[in-house]
């Protein structure tokens, strides 16, 4: 408690079964008349456009749909979306889908009004003014993008990921309906759910955590550990889906206020160079980074183990902390997800290049409970290989 801290997030959070039906009301609340809806391409092909049109037509609105981007989107796609939003004279942006769709929506909202190129806004606090109002609707549980101030994209020219980080990226409304996550297939459910666990563990062990962020991060760890297996293997279980989405929300609020750690720095080059999906890259690296970080946060990792349901009676603090790494590994295995860098085609000969790129992703490394050099980054990659 010997620190000054602040706490931020989306201005309003609307959570619950069937809450998607209130999207039109949310648009009206923000005085939106011409919504620009950024929707995951897979969702659009699956027919979600009809649901969007139905919900909006109930309040007399019609959407301009935009889905011209790929998973793990390129930065250039933001500029195309912003041009379309300006051309259509849209006055509010809605992001519906996973992290890629919501990151796109948040970035389009600020570039559409601030002008220029999206590359100009990369980094911390480089966005000069607020953008269009934003409503985020996650369909995975998940990235937490609906409550964060970050949008991350692939830089084709640099073969790595970079992000925009600004309070102007916080959504005005986060609308979370667990019913929208019921159709997520097992592999997507596993990867996004473990991504949320990664956010929770990283934010809890970040040196910039605070009492409020720790409360949320720890609750997220417990909810995810208890419910993710059911979501993966019994995908229509709405109780589990609801609890998992709540855990993802808490994890997103935790990372927005405490930051993430070395897992994210090391995972960004995997997305940029190899195209490894963000959640999968984080999942593969999480146990290796936890093993490396143990000496820097033994007490916290022991608490993580307890939150995951591990019983450490009679064990030393270090042994209890090690149980957290083991519990994460078992959860990954139970979810049936790829778990090594070799599984996703990463070459051992590229470790030094990847480590060099990772060291440029400075903010998460600054939050890490143990300092990392390029040589040590290579060893973490080797451990995850």
Taking all Cα atoms into account, the compactness measure Rg is: 20 Å
Structural class: alpha/beta
Strand percentage lies at: 5-15%
How many distinct domains? 2
Question: What is the CATH third-level topology name of the largest domain?
Answer: Dehydroquinate synthase-like, alpha domain
Highest-level CATH class of the largest domain: Mainly Alpha
Shape category: globular
Mean pLDDT: 95
Helical region count? Answer: 15
Element-level helix/strand string: EHEHHEHEHEEEEEHHHHHHHHHH
Low-confidence stretches: none
Strand order of the largest sheet: 1-9-6-4-2-3
Number of strands: 9
CATH architecture of the largest domain: Up-down Bundle
- Terminal CA distance reads 39 Å
CATH homologous superfamily placement of the largest domain: Dehydroquinate synthase-like - alpha domain
Biggest sheet, in brief? 6 strands, parallel
Helical amount among residues, as a percent range? 40-55%
Give a description of the structure:
There is one protein chain. This protein is α/β, with parallel strands linked by helices and 385 residues long. The protein folds into two domains: 12-181, Rossmann fold (3-Layer(aba) Sandwich), CATH 3.40.50; 186-384, Dehydroquinate synthase-like - alpha domain (Dehydroquinate synthase-like, alpha domain), CATH 1.20.1090. Helix content is 51%, strand content 11%. The protein has 15 helices and nine strands. It has a six-stranded parallel beta sheet with strand order 1-9-6-4-2-3, sandwiched between helices. A three-stranded mixed beta sheet has the order 5-8-7. The chain is globular.
